[in-house]
Specification:
Layout: H1 2-10, H2 13-31, H3 36-48, H4 53-78, H5 87-98, H6 102-135, H7 140-156, H8 162-176, E1 179-180, E2 187-188, H9 202-218, H10 236-242, H11 247-261, H12 267-282, H13 295-318, H14 324-335, H15 342-347, H16 349-372, H17 374-380, H18 385-404, H19 408-425, H20 431-453, H21 465-491
Antiparallel strand pairs: 1-2
């Protein structure tokens, strides 16, 4: 009865307090445009290294779960999404706020987020253990192909230029190869620096490549299109309770987020936009969308909060993260010595169930915290971004130093931050780079193991039905997006499918 033991671990006072802290910080991070859950998790990693695994991971899950709801607050109040998953919320959330229904819109977002998160977590609890059982049936050759498949799917599905996604994934792989090659003993990509002999610490890489580059990019963004800030004058609780009046929108959004979230590389933004499109198509009054339709808030918010637990399904069971944020969470697991896959469910089953229940606790927690501190979170939307970004960058450098206590860590963060910023400036997606760092070790380790088992025969990668299925998926994930991009240019004029409704 590990699920019962996990439940008691999750509702212990110290675990609940960790979730509370994560939720509180997560909502703040969500409200501030340009930061996001990935950056938030990265910033906290150095400060959680010496904490027990349950406390550190529960706090991170609380932050991740609450970020989606927090991002909707700025979408509704100032028409600036806190993250990619909250873009669709602007379409009807902000018009509702302009009509004096800001509290109702935030309440609808809160209720939809709660149900979407619980739905996705239920699917996670149901699917992750049997998928992990399947994982023990595959060997190092299959794991190598599985890792490559995860990389190419994310690279191919990142943005309109799949080639840039693959290049970004290659950058992440190269960073994961820095230091000693455990098979040959050779030192790679160290540039003669002894500091790099042991490789680049995952947390440092994420602070520089992901967090710093994102924060610096945020200072370059124009904000002329942002609307003026709307104050909350009506009842948030009324909107929260009104969510149950739209069961179809909640269920559809939760299904879309759960299904798409479990597939690596699709992402929270696609899930919420697809949910919005579905709601508009099935509505009896589609003309109300873009003018304050409640379903336009409920559907996307249910979807983007169902994505988080769904992205953990392949991450925990197979070691293939469903998103860049899931990849960072996988890095946190490894930081605590926990290896995704069947070993995790066998040796730390109670802890895994405690993490599942922690997501449930976090889902209810951000409703409580959101109601209790709603005015405070709303006030953050009025703080100028030029004050928030430098303060967050300062925290990043403090965290980098706290990670290993050496000033050389700052140099690593600065160099990787510059690389990350240049990649963003030239429209290279960062998600594949993050996944490349996480999956690089898995791919290299299992590739070498497979060759040792087969006496250096590459035939091992083509033996067995599972390998052939993975090869087919691998080829489709590489050439499928390229084919679709070509079709769009030839027959659709390169136009986008779907358009943003008038706000």
């Amino acid at each position: 009865m590990n699920w019962v033991q996990g439940l008691f671990m999750a509702i212990s006072p110290v675990s609940i307090f960790a979730v509370f802290l994560g939720v509180f910080v997560g909502i703040i991070i969500g409200v501030i445009p340009g930061i996001g859950a990935g950056v938030g998790l990265t910033l906290l990693l150095p400060f959680l290294m010496n904490q027990p695994a349950l406390i550190g991971l529960a706090l991170l899950l609380g932050l991740w779960a609450a970020d989606g709801y927090g991002a909707s607050i700025s979408s509704i109040l100032i028409n600036v999404p806190g993250g990619s998953g909250a873009v669709a919320t602007c379409f009807d959330g902000y018009p509702m706020a302009r009509q004096g229904k800001a509290g109702q819109a935030i309440g609808l977002s809160m209720g939809a987020s709660l149900i979407g998160g619980l739905f996705g977590t239920a699917v996670l609890m149901f699917l992750a253990p049997p998928m992990a059982e399947f994982a023990i049936k595959i060997g190092p050759a299959e794991y190598t192909l599985l890792g490559l498949t995860g990389l190419t799917m994310v690279g191919g599905l990142s943005g309109d230029d799949p080639i840039k996604g693959v290049v970004s994934a290659a950058v992440g792989l190269m960073l994961s190869f820095v230091g000693y090659d455990l098979t040959t003993g050779f030192i790679r990509y160290s540039f003669g620096q002894k500091y790099l002999y042991g490789g680049i610490e995952f947390g440092l890489a994420m602070i520089g490549l992901f967090a710093i580059s994102s924060l610096v990019e945020s200072t370059q963004e124009e904000e002329e299109d942002a609307g003026y800030r709307v104050r909350v004058k009506d009842s948030t609780i009324k909107g929260l309770l009104a969510t149950v009046k739209y069961p179809g929108a909640v269920l559809r959004g939760s299904l879309v987020g759960t299904v798409l979230g479990a597939f690596p590389g699709i992402g929270i933004g696609v899930s919420s936009m697809m949910s919005y499109s579905i709601e508009q198509k099935v509505s009896k009054h589609p003309e109300t969308f873009g003018n304050g339709a409640p379903e336009g808030v409920i559907g996307p918010e249910a979807a983007n909060n169902a994505v988080q637990p769904a992205a953990l399904i392949p991450a925990l069971a197979l070691g293939i993260p469903g998103s860049s944020t899931a990849a960072i969470f996988m890095g946190a697991l490894m930081m605590y010595g926990l290896k995704p896959g069947m070993d995790l469910f066998k040796t730390s089953s109670a802890l895994v169930w405690a993490l599942f229940w922690s997501i449930v606790v976090a889902s209810f927690m951000y409703v409580i915290v959101g109601l209790a501190f709603g005015n405070f979170f709303a006030s953050i939307t009025g703080v100028p971004i030029e004050y928030l970004i430098p303060a967050t960058i300062l925290v990043s450098f403090v965290g980098a130093f706290a990670m290993d206590g050496q000033s050389t860590a700052w140099l690593v963060v600065i160099v990787l931050g510059f690389i990350g910023f240049m990649m963003r400036a030239h429209k290279y997606p960062m998600g594949p780079a993050v996944l490349g760092m996480v999956l690089g070790d898995l791919i290299e380790r299992n590739f070498n193991r497979a060759l040792l088992i087969s006496d250096h025969s590459y035939k091992i990668f083509f033996s067995g039905a599972i390998n052939w299925v993975l090869w087919i998926i691998l080829v489709l994930s590489i050439f499928g997006p390229l084919a679709w991009s070509t079709v769009k240019k030839l027959f659709l004029g390169g136009g986008k499918v779907g358009a943003k409704p008038a706000a």
